[in-house]
Amino acid sequence: MPQTDSGINTPPLENECHEHIGPQLPDFTTVMDACRGRLHKRLSELLSLEQLCRQAGSLIQSRTEALIDVDEFTLPLVSLVIGNPDTAKHCLFVTAGIHGVERIGTQVLLAWLESVVERCRWDSHWRQQFESEICIVAVPIVNPGGMLRDSRCNPNGIDLNRHAPIDAEDKVPFLVGGQRLWRKIPWYRGRRDDDFEPEFIALQNIIGRHCKVGRPSIVVDFHSGFGFQDHLWIPYAYRRLPIADIGSYVALKLLWERNFPHHNYVFGPQAMHYLSHGDIWDYFYQHCRAQGITLLPLTLEMGSWLWVKKHPQQLFSFAGLFNPTVPHRHARVLRGHLLLIDFLLAAARNMEHWQPKGEQEREMQQMAQSLWYRQL
Ligand SMILES: [Zn+2]
Questions:
Q1: Looking at residue 22, what is its pLDDT?
Q2: Half-sphere exposure of 208 toward its Cβ, with a 13 Å CA cutoff?
Q3: For this chain's UniProt record, which GO biological process terms are given (predicted)?
Q4: What distance in angstroms lies between residue 273's CA and the mean position of ligand 1's atoms?
Q5: pLDDT tens, 294-331?
């Protein structure tokens, strides 16, 4: 078994857990009052998010984490919580829209949150889980300024998923793997390693507030734009060696495959496809682990090349490269991932029932080696 990363070296964060919480910002509705009427054509996802909160009433607690100035707007970066974040034993983080052009990720996440809220109305067992067992922490639009502009980057030209202070150990694809050459080329990381963007700080605050020792969590981060199939990516992006928790990831993959043998996801390490600098989940995983906190991040990378192949006209619009544009395909994508996210919610709630320990964990690590790491 190749050596895993037990010796973790995370640069110190400016803010540790409780100091993360910044000054109180105006609430979500107040911020929306100033921009709601002008968002229909440019950022309808934010209106859908607000509508979801309105319909959910007390089931969802929203919080303005940052204010993003872009063009003539001041947009809220909002987090939502379902459940009791003080007493929940487990946590599922769901994030989308880190790359503003990948709107479909936000739409899939909002569709799932709507189904969670609706089910709370009539399924008492479903609702009970949010009383003390688990909480959902959702950030459906991490990069509202980028989404308003249909851009991968945030309004400062930074690719938020190349922005964390962590460098790849091996060669990354030219430009795509993250670059510090020029802000106007995509995949720009930012000038330095210690000058963080507000969206990054907001995510850091949210993780700092909700991740605790003894409260294991799963993260699902929604993206689109790579490959012909839907991928579930295991970290790391910065190195080829297996992540310390690789045994848990194999156990989760086996659990998924045993329960849903006809699924259609490619479940494996991202590093088998490409490496990149500055991956935020590499960074947050390591930061949590250094504090003894279990956080298992997964990236759902929806295979948009298939949508383009079936409807080549999409090639003529930048957004068309990342989002399904034909209505029936769009609907299929919106419903296609609900089962997976429901499963991950249940997996997060029951982590102690499937997370391998001792000899079982060693077996899972060996399985990981034969599946993915034979060349190392
Ligand atoms: Zn993306």
A1: 52
A2: 17
A3: proteolysis
A4: 14
A5: 999 999 999 877 767 777 776 667 777 778 877 888 88
What count of other Cβ atoms lies within 10 Å of the Cβ of residue 124?
8
> Encoding tokens for residue 69?
């100035």
CB 252 within 8 A of CB 343: no
Compute the distance from residue 223 Cα to the ligand 1 centre, in Å.
4
pLDDT score at 23: 63
Edge-first strand listing for the sheet containing 134-139:
60-70, 73-82, 134-139, 90-96, 217-224, 295-302, 230-234, 265-269
**Cα–Cα nearest to 173, from 97, 237, 269:** 237
Task: Report how far ligand 1's centroid is from the alpha carbon of 264 (Å).
Answer: 20
Cis amide bond preceding 188, omega within 30? no
pLDDT tens digits, one per residue of 99-131? 999 999 999 999 999 999 999 999 999 999 999
**Distance between CA 163 and CA 278 in Å, rounded?**
5
Q: What is the pLDDT of residue 307?
A: 63
241 pLDDT above the threshold of 90: yes
Residue 82 backbone phi and psi in degrees, to 5: -115, 125
Ligand 1 center to 201 CA (angstroms): 18
What is the b/e burial string over 225-258, where b = at least 16 CB atoms within 10 angstroms of the residue's CB?
A: bbeeebbbbbbbbbbbbbbbbbbbbbbbbebbee
Q: What average pLDDT does the chain have?
A: 90
Residues 6 or more apart whose Cβ sits within 8 Å of residue 65: 25, 76, 77, 78, 79, 139, 202, 205, 206
Residues with CB under 5 A from ligand 1 (ion): 99, 102, 223
Residue 233 has a pLDDT of 97
Query: Which architecture characterizes domain 17-372 according to CATH?
Result: 3-Layer(aba) Sandwich (3.40)
d(CA 5, CA 9): 9
